[in-house]
């Protein structure tokens, strides 16, 4: 199939892009990397009246550290973020990016585009939710920031209004005493995840201060849960032995899975199968993140 007819504009100023989108009366779509939008157009699952191409808008290609955060603007490609040393300050993002599609797609796809598309099995939205990154939306009424955990409202549904352009995201940088973990299971590398987890653990000395677990591919959006109590209890019972810790976590995580994994399942995996994947991945990555937090080490995810 081919896309239905549409108008096309390519502004060079953000103000003009915002006005073009607002002038479409809800019939416009923003085009950035196009790795999600173009296939949807080709299958006529979306029929926008106008495409607002932001690839030449000034200022939307910035990737910069701002002290306590890493700011990724709307036109920054995933491949660039994957290989830029600035991303070392956000270890969880660096762990997740190699799992996003294939490198050819990451060379065109944008970080912000993945957020706006909001696929429930996507890696970048899960990282944003786990870290509760702040998403910047720009409209004719000005600029506002939305916490990532409030941004995703359903399957491919977000807090984006019909006049909003997602112009940037700010990921908080890692601090001392934090450790991270990321893993997913898919039929083949680059396929949609059957289940995946993003994990952040913060410690004070040897005490668990905070533990956050975000699951993706198991519901209609990234699902985040504070598991500080469960992790602290398992650490208390197992000491600092990572193997024993990972062995103790499945029991409490099995109860958590009942609420977090609510997909109906499909031909590739039932709800119960995805719950088992979630429990296994969560236990392993929580143990790894805890160990990394204690040692102050966050290398590439093995």
Automatic annotation (TrEMBL):
Task: Name the top EC class.
Answer: oxidoreductase
User: Which residue ranges does the record assign to the FAD-binding PCMH-type domain?
Assistant: 1-176
SMART domains noted in UniProt: CO_deh_flav_C (SM01092)
Which Pfam families does the record associate with it?
CO_deh_flav_C, FAD_binding_5
The Gene Ontology terms for molecular function here are: anaerobic carbon-monoxide dehydrogenase activity; FAD binding
EC number(s) from the headed UniProt entry? 1.2.7.4
Q: Which UniProt keywords apply?
A: FAD, Flavoprotein, Oxidoreductase
- What is this protein identified as? Carbon-monoxide dehydrogenase medium subunit
What species was this sequence derived from?
Halosaccharopolyspora lacisalsi
Tell me the organism's taxonomic lineage: Bacteria, Bacillati, Actinomycetota, Actinomycetes, Pseudonocardiales
């Amino acid at each position: 199939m081919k896309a239905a007819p549409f108008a096309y504009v390519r502004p060079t100023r953000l103000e003009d892009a915002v006005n073009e989108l607002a002038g479409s009366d809800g019939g416009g779509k923003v085009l950035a990397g196009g790795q999600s939008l173009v296939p949807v157009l080709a299958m006529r699952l979306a029929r926008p009246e106008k495409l607002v191409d932001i690839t030449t808008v000034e200022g939307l290609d910035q990737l910069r550290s701002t002290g306590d955060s890493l700011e990724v603007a709307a036109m920054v490609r995933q491949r660039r973020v994957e290989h830029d040393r600035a991303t070392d300050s956000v270890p969880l993002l660096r762990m997740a990016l190699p799992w996003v599609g294939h490198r050819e797609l990451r060379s065109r796809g944008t970080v912000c585009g993945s957020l706006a598309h909001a696929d429930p099995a996507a890696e970048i939205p899960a990282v944003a939710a786990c870290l509760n990154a702040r998403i910047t939306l720009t409209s004719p009424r000005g600029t506002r920031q939305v916490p990532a955990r409030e941004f995703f409202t359903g399957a491919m549904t977000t807090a984006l209004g019909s006049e909003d352009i997602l112009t940037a995201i700010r990921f908080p940088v890692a601090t001392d005493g934090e450790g991270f973990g990321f893993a997913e299971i898919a039929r083949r590398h680059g396929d949609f995840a059957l289940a995946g987890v993003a994990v952040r653990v913060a410690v004070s000395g040897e005490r668990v201060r905070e533990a956050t677990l975000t699951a993706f591919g198991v519901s209609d959006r990234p699902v985040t849960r504070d598991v500080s109590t469960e992790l602290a209890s398992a650490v208390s019972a197992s000491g600092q032995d990572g193997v024993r810790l990972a062995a103790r976590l499945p029991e409490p995580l099995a109860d958590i899975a009942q609420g977090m994994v609510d997909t109906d399942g499909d031909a590739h995996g039932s709800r119960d199968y995805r719950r088992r994947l979630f429990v296994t991945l969560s236990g392993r990555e929580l143990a790894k993140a805890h160990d990394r937090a204690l040692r102050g080490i966050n290398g590439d995810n093995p």
